[in-house]
Specification:
heterodimer; A: alpha+beta; PmbA/TldD fold; 2 domains; 9-stranded mixed β-sheet; 23% helix; B: PmbA/TldD fold; 6-stranded antiparallel β-sheet; 10 helices; 24% helix
Chain lengths: 522, 444
Amino acid sequence: MRVGRRTFVKGTASVAALATLSSAGFTEARGLLTDPLLASLIERALGRARKDGASYADVRIVRRRTEEISAREDKLEDISADDEYGIGIRVIANGAWGFAATQLLAAEPVERAAAAAVALARANAPLLKRPVALAPNPVHVDVWQTPLTKDPFKIPIEDKAELLLALNAAAMKVKGVRFARSNYYAISEWKLLATSEGSFIEQQITRLAPGFEVTAVDDKRGDFETVAHTIAPRQAGWEYLEEANLIGDARQLGEQVLEKLAAPSVQSGKRELVLAPSNLWLTIHESIGHPTELDRALGYEANFAGTSFATPDKLGKLQIAAPQLTFYADKTTRGGLATCGYDDDGVKTQRWDLVKNGLFVGYQTTRDQAAWLGEKASRGTSYADSYASVPFQRMPNVSLAPNPARCSLEDLVAGTQDGVLITGVGTWSIDHQRFNFQFSGQLFWEIKHGKRTRMLRDVSYSANTISFWNACQRIGDRAHFKLGAAMYDGKGQPMQINGVSHGCPPAYFRDISVASTNTRGG
Amino acid sequence: MAFTQAEARRHVERIVGIAKKAAPGADVEVYMRHTQRGQTRFAVNEVSTAAEVEVLKLELRLSYGLRSAAVRVSQLDDVTVRDAAVRGARLAKIAPEQAERQPLLGPQKYLMPQGTVDGALRGASAALRAEAAKVAIMRAEADKVVIAGFVDHEDTSVSVANSAGLAGYFEYTRGSFDCTARTQDGTGSGWAGSHSNRWADLDVAAYASTAIDKAVKARAPRRLDPGRYTVVLEPAAVAELLGAFVESLKLRNAQEGRSFFSRPGGETRIGETLWPSSITLRSDPADVALPFAPWNDESLPLSAAAWIEKGKLERLPVSRYWAKQKSLAPIPYPRAFELAGGSETLAQLIAGVKRGVLITRFWYLNYLDPNTLLSTGLTRDGTFLIENGEIAGPVNNFRFNESPHTMLKNCDGLGKSLIPPVFDIRVPALRTHEFNLASISEAV
C-alpha cells in the first residue's frame, strides 16, 4: 500500500502500515514494541510536529540488541547482552533541522520530544544561511532484513562460549604461545522509520564481529608480539562462523606469532608492496571512503573529522588512482556492514562509482546534501547509530572493482622483485585531509625475485593517497576479491559509530616507502 | 534534569528488589546512568544540526558464584527490569565459570566532591547553545574566515548498588565548546576550546578569537623538512600523546611481560626513575572540573594517588583479581589523570628554543609498537617554526613517530596544567627535544 502526505495530516498512516508490515516476521525483533504502541507513538510524534509547525518530520524507533562474550586463555571473561530502545524525532521548521530523543516510549514524553525538536529548529533558524532543502524521494512502504540462515541470537550461549574456549585452547597447544584472547559480538539493529511524506520502512540488520588473537613473550629479551586473525565483521547469521573454520586456523596462528617474534625487522626504504585484501580494505576506507564524503569535503566536519583533498572543483578532473582502478560505493553488497534496504532518510540504497578508471567522479550524499552538488536525488547514505543520534552522512560500503583478467595473489608475488607481502590490519593513521597515511599489518613476508622468503616484523608503509593509488600497477581478479570491515568507524560530534565493509582483490604497488617501527633496539 | 539522589535511590532499591525476587539466590549488581544532553553543531558559518536527548542506561549483573552475566536495558519499568533479571540469571546459570570473577563488595565509602553540578548547565537550553554558536560565527564573518564547532552540555547522574548493600550516587554537569577556523583560501587553520563542569568557565568569544587568530597566522605555511626537532607542545597535543601512555598503566600486563613497564622475568619498572624530576603524574577524584564518579569499574572507591613522583614510577593500577593472585591490595585505575605543571608561560617555553616547532594539537594517533609505546599521528590546526626564541611563521604539518615515554624523558620545560578541549585530563604545555617529525603532511 502507499501512504501519502495526506495520511500524515490525518494521522492514520502508521496503523495501516503496521498492519501491512506485521506479516514480515518482525515480531521477535520488535520485542515489547507492539503494533498499537508503535502506531500510537508515531501518530503522536508526527502529529505534534505538524501542529507545532514542522514542514517535515520523521520518526525512528530503534531497538538494539547485542550479545558479547570474551575469553582469555582457558577462562571465560564475561558475558553481556544489551536490549535498548527509544525514539528519535527529526523535524524541519523554519528551514532548520531540529532533533530530540527519549527512551521513554509513552505518549507524553514522545510529544514533549516532538515539541522540543521543533523548538530547537526554530532557535537555530536565524543562524542559517540557506534553508534545508530535501531532495525529492519516492514514498516507500517496505521491509528489509539481513539475509541469514541461522539467527545468532537463537544460538545457545554455551555454543558461543565453547567456541571461544576451544579457539584459545587450540592456539595454546602451540608451545611458546603465552596468551590467547577471543571474543564474540553480535548486534541486531531493528528500526522503524516513518516520515511525514508517508514512507514507512521496517528493517532488521544483524551483524557479527568475532575476534581472536594470540601473544608470545620472549622473557629473556623482554619482548612480545601479538597476531590477530583476519576474519572480518559481517552482516550474517551464525553460519558465517560455522563456515569460517577458525579452530582450524588457531594452530597456524600460534605458529605464526612465534615466527613473527623471532623475525628480523624490515629494512627501511622504497619497496614493492603486495597487499592482501585483509590489509588493503582499511587503506581504501581511509583514503577513498572518507575523502568522498560530501559533508567533509565542504567543511561540515572541519572541527573534528577534518576536510578532504577531494573538493567539488576536482570532480571529474582529479586522477586519484591508476586508470585500471575503479572504486564504487554500494549499500546493497551482500554481507556488507553498511548494507540495508533504505537509509535513515528513507532513500532506497544503491551502487554508484566514486572513482572510475582512476578519475574522481562521485560523492556520498544524503537528501539534504544532494542540492549542494546540483544533483536531483540522494545517494542514500544517511545513518544514525542509535535512536538518540542525529542521522547524517555516513560511509557506505566502498570497494575496489576486481581485475576482469585472471590474476591471483601468487601471481602478484611472482611478479615482485624486492618487496613485502602484508596481510591483516595493524596500526593505521591518516591526516585530516586524507593525504598522508601510514599503515601496518599483522603478518609480513619478504619477497625476493618472485618468491616469499622469510617473515619480517615492525613493518609500516606510508604514502600520499594520490601517489599511492597511482602506483598501483596490477590487481587480483574476482576469485580473489574479499570483504574486510570496520565495525566502529567514527565521525561527527558527538562521535557516532558506523559499520562499513570494503571489498577488494590483492594489489601490487611499486616504490612505496616502507619503514621499520623497531625502537626496541636489537 | 538528571535523576536526583532520592529519585535514583528509589529506582535502584526497586530494581535490586525485583531482581532478587526474579533470580532467587543470585548476587545482584546495578549500574544506572541517566543523562539529559543538548548539542549544537555549526559549520561553514551556519548552524548545521542540533539535538536534545534523554538517555537512560541500566545494567543488571546477575551472578551465581563464578557464573555471571550482565544485561543492559534502556527502560526502568517493572516488566523490563524483571525480564532483564530473568535473562541475566539464565545466561549466568548456563555460562561456564569465570575464574577471575570477584565476590560482591559490601558497603563502600565514596568521596563526594562538592560543586560538580552547575545550575546554568543543568538548565541549559537550545538558546544558550545558539547564542554561543552565534558569537563564534559573527567573529568569523568579521574576520573573513570559515568556522565550524560544537557546543555540548549534559546533566548526568550515575548510581551503583548491589545486593550486599553497596550504594553510590554521583551527579555532574559538563559543558564544552570547541571550534576550528579556516582561512577562505584554505591554507590556514586554527583550533581552540575547553570544557568544564561550569558554563561560566567557558569563554566562547575568547576561544573563537584564538582559533581565528591561529588560522590567520597559520596561512600560507612554508616548507620545513622532516627531522628530529625541539618542540613546544600545547596542552591538547600533550593530552593526546599522553593518552597512549596512561592507557598502558596496568600492573598485570607489566608482570605478564607485555607492556612498556615490563622487565624481563616478570619484573616491572616500578621504583625506577625513568623521567626528569619535573615529571609527576597523579590523579584526584575531587577535581570537580573533571567530574567523574568516585569509584572505578569494580566499584572500588577512588582516592588521590601519585603514579609518577618526580620522575619515578611509583605504582601501577591493579585489579581485584590480580591483586589477590599476587597478594597485593587492589589499586583502582583512576578516571582522570593530571600531569603536574610548571611555572613557565607558553611564551617562556618558546623563548627557550633556538630552532624548533610549536604544535597546537595532534590527530589520529595509533600505536606502532606497544613494547616502547611508539605512536604515530599528525599535527594540525596551527604548526609554527620557532627560531631564536620567537615564532618565525607557519610551517607544513607533519606525521610524527614518537613515544610518549620519550616525550616525557626529554622534557625540560612545563607550563601551567589545565584541561584542554575534548580531553579528560589536566596537562601543561611542555617543551621536549629530539621529537621525531617523520614526514610532511600536505593537510591544512
